[in-house]
Each structure stands twice: as C-alpha cells, then as structure tokens.
Design brief:
Blueprint lengths: L24 H22 L7 H8 L3 H10 L3 H30 L4 H54 L3 H8 L8 H30 L36
Length: 250
C-alpha cells in the first residue's frame, strides 16, 4: 500500500478555484443592452455602408451585436463557479475518506481462490479511489472554473466596450436621431447607419479575442467512467464458481 497523500500523486488534494473578478456588467446591463438594441434596429432598418468593416464582422459572428450582448448579460458565471467549488470539496472528501478504506482493505489476510477473486475487485476499487475518481472530479472542477472565468472575461469585455463607446459621437448620433416614420428620418438614415456600423464593429472587436480564447474550452470527447470488473468468487469448499460476488456499474 502507498501511504499518505503520496498515493494521490500531483492531484493537489486541497485545490480550489480562484475567486471570480468583480463583475460590473450587472450594474450597466440596461444601458448596454439598450444601446446595442438600438444598433440592431438601425442595422435592420437602414442597412450598413457597403464597404464598412461591419459587413465582414456580421459574416464572421452571424449575430447582431445587441442579440449577442443580451446573451452575455443573461448568463451569470457565478453558479458555474460555485459548482466547481463544490466539486473540489467533494474531491477532497473522497481523498480523505479513501485512506481508512484502503488501509482496511490492505489488512485483510485472505488466501487461495477467494483471495485472488477479492484482489481482482480490490485492485479496481483502489485505482478508482486513489486516481480515477479524484482525477475526474478535479478535471471537471477545473473545467467549470475555467468556463466561469472565461465568461467573466467576456462580461468584462462588454463592460469595457460600453465604458469606451457608450457616450461616443456614434452613440450620441444613434440616440439623438428622429424616430421611425418621422419626416426627418430619411435625412438621418445615412448617419444612423454609419453610427450603428461603427458601434457594432467596436463591440465585435472587444469580444473577438475573448471568444477566440473560448474555443480552447470546448470539451474533448472523454472516456466513459471506468467500470469495476465483475468477479465471480469460486466456492471455497468445492473450487467451483458459485457466482456469489458481483461488483460493477450498471
């Protein structure tokens, strides 16, 4: 038996996810979404200047900036981070609880066919408790923490966009324009289209690097949870297979 925490290798029994940074988007959510919803309406009503960068941006993102911003505002990374903390705590519990279980199992003094059947299953149980289960819990907790951290960065990028452009000339032009159907709307349309395109491009530029980094967080195909082997214990008196012991996952 490998004694103490050395059995768990480098899996960091006390690992916890780093706290999320302060999130200011909730305070600005209404004004951010109002501005970018106005951008969406202007793009849909007036179109975009044909040579503007926003043409390529819209093809790349396949979404209007207001709709994209609303999805970011509506998603809170805090619950995902909290689940990562819980998984990390569960992992610590497994690591600590495994010590006496493994110690007791190693102290049994069996011999013969019964011992061999027991050892087959016990080896699988030991591997699960010492490596596989803690590693799975750690991997899931780390992934959840990384996902929550990435979404926090996405929210921070949207906040930074608004703080920089929320009162820009383009935003003022868009807000100050005549309402739909008014006599002056036609004269205002070119300026509104350009302002909306400028704001959309600025929003996409702020989000692009964070969204690109998020591609690395796509979960890879993982192997299914390893099943414990099914062991059939030979009868101690006759040496025949009695089928008295079974262990494994359904």
């Amino acid at each position: 038996m490998i004694a103490g925490s050395a059995r768990y290798g480098t899996q960091r029994p006390d690992w916890r996810p780093a706290p999320l940074p302060a999130d200011h988007l909730a305070e600005l959510a209404e004004v951010v979404t109002d501005l970018l919803a106005a951008v969406d309406r202007a793009i849909q009503r007036y179109g975009v200047p044909p040579e503007h960068q926003v043409v390529a941006d819209l093809r790349e993102f396949r979404a209007l900036p207001g709709a994209l911003a609303q999805s970011i505002v509506d998603t809170d990374p805090e619950p995902v981070w909290q689940r990562s903390v819980e998984l990390a705590r569960h992992r610590t519990t497994v690591v600590e609880a495994a010590e006496p279980v493994l110690a007791d199992g190693d102290e049994l003094r069996w011999a013969g066919a019964g011992q061999r059947a027991y050892q087959t299953v016990w080896s699988a149980v030991s591997a699960t408790l010492t490596a596989e289960l803690p590693a799975q819990l750690l991997g899931t907790a780390e992934y959840g923490a990384a996902l929550a951290g990435w979404y926090s960065k996405l929210r921070a990028a949207l906040t930074s966009f608004f703080l920089r452009y929320g009162n820009s000339p383009a935003a003022v032009t868009l807000r100050a324009g005549p309402g739909p159907g008014t006599a002056d709307e036609l004269d205002h349309a070119p300026a509104a289209a350009t302002a909306a395109a400028d704001l959309a491009t600025a929003c996409f530029a702020a989000l692009r690097p964070v969204l690109a980094a998020g591609r690395e967080l796509r979960p890879a195909t993982t192997d299914p949870r390893p099943a414990l082997p099914t062991a059939r214990t030979p009868d101690h008196d006759t040496g025949t297979d009695s089928g008295a012991f079974h262990a494994g996952h359904d």
